[in-house]
């Protein structure tokens, strides 16, 4: 009953106790809504359906070891173990995060980070910056999954997306969408998240979710794919976003009072997708205009922005 594309979908861990009928309904809903990034924890039996497994280890931004780091550290390696146990999974694609790449002390300007960069766990655990547990969990999980995959002879490719925006088949969204629209919505708390991302990372890197999905399929299908891949369409700043949004969407005036504080004129740290592009992947959403037309319409639908 599953199409060729659907054979790469893996059911979430929350469905471990679901009946076969319930699982089929779940997959049907995902396909009906054209959500290709379904990929989370894997079921032993589900692994028998396909040659590729996907793990989306996205977590809530909970601060602390007990709530976030330990469950993530245990869970994802168990997924890889299930893939090995299934015996038919040839490659696992792990969705990590740029939080595993860029959370590190970098002085000055002009930094370009690629897949060789890792967030500094020692610095994070000693300095405890905001959402430090999220970054630490991403690093530990990714390294442990890679180690286990290598020891058991299974190909594991990691995709590290940056701030992700775009439509989703849900009416309630958190973090990235409200933050990306905060200059238009006027929500100070959401803008605070965007400013924190800039301060902590040296810029605001963005990617559309409809580019992440093909990137993950590319990582799964491309025989030569290996290691980590940063998924980033562009690098910008809060100030640059404010200028762009003011010109593009005049009906949502950006309040100058929202631009107070120590903001960057241009990114001092850029995340590079050169490896992904060099190996043949092409982004569809390459500019702020292409990204935001979709995001603004979605913001209207879910009530973040007025119609």
From TrEMBL:
<feature type="domain" description="NAD-dependent epimerase/dehydratase">
    <location>
        <begin position="68"/>
        <end position="224"/>
    </location>
</feature>
<dbReference type="InterPro" id="IPR001509">
    <property type="entry name" value="Epimerase_deHydtase"/>
</dbReference>
<dbReference type="InterPro" id="IPR036291">
    <property type="entry name" value="NAD(P)-bd_dom_sf"/>
</dbReference>
<protein>
    <recommendedName>
        <fullName>NAD-dependent epimerase/dehydratase domain-containing protein</fullName>
    </recommendedName>
</protein>
<keyword id="KW-0560">Oxidoreductase</keyword>
<dbReference type="GO" id="GO:0009813">
    <property type="term" value="P:flavonoid biosynthetic process"/>
</dbReference>
<comment type="similarity">
    <text>Belongs to the NAD(P)-dependent epimerase/dehydratase family. Dihydroflavonol-4-reductase subfamily.</text>
</comment>
<dbReference type="GO" id="GO:0016616">
    <property type="term" value="F:oxidoreductase activity, acting on the CH-OH group of donors, NAD or NADP as acceptor"/>
</dbReference>
<comment type="pathway">
    <text>Secondary metabolite biosynthesis; flavonoid biosynthesis.</text>
</comment>
<dbReference type="Pfam" id="PF01370">
    <property type="entry name" value="Epimerase"/>
</dbReference>
<keyword id="KW-0284">Flavonoid biosynthesis</keyword>
<dbReference type="InterPro" id="IPR050425">
    <property type="entry name" value="NAD(P)_dehydrat-like"/>
</dbReference>
<keyword id="KW-0521">NADP</keyword>
């Amino acid at each position: 009953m599953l199409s060729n594309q659907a054979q790469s979908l893996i059911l979430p861990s929350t469905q471990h106790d679901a009946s076969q009928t319930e699982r089929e309904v779940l997959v049907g809903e995902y396909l009906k809504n054209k959500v290709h990034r379904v990929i989370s924890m894997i079921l032993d039996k589900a692994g028998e359906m396909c040659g590729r497994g996907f793990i989306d280890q996205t977590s809530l931004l909970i601060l602390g070891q007990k709530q976030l780091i330990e469950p993530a550290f245990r869970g994802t390696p168990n997924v890889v173990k299930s893939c090995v146990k299934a015996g038919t999974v040839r490659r696992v694609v792990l969705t990590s995060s740029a939080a595993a790449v860029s959370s590190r002390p970098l002085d000055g300007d002009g930094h370009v980070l690629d897949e060789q960069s890792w967030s500094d766990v020692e610095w994070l655990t000693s300095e405890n910056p905001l959402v430090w547990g999220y970054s630490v969990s991403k690093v530990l999980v990714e390294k442990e999954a890679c180690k286990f995959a290598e020891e058991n002879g299974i190909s594991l490719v990691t995709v590290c997306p940056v701030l992700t925006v775009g439509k989703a088949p849900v009416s309630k969204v958190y973090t990235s969408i409200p933050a990306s629209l905060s200059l238009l919505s006027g929500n100070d708390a959401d803008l605070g998240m965007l400013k924190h991302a800039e301060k902590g990372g040296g810029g605001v890197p963005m990617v559309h979710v409809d580019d992440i999905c093909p990137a993950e399929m590319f990582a799964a299908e491309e025989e030569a794919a290996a290691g980590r891949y940063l998924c980033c369409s562009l690098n910008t700043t809060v100030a640059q976003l404010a200028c762009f949004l003011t010109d593009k969407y005049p009906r949502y005036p950006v309040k100058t009072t929202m631009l107070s504080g120590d903001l960057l004129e241009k990114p001092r740290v850029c995340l590079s997708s050169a490896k992904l592009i060099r190996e043949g992947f092409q982004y569809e959403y390459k500019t702020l205009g292409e990204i935001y037309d979709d995001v603004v319409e979605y913001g209207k639908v879910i009530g973040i922005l007025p119609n």
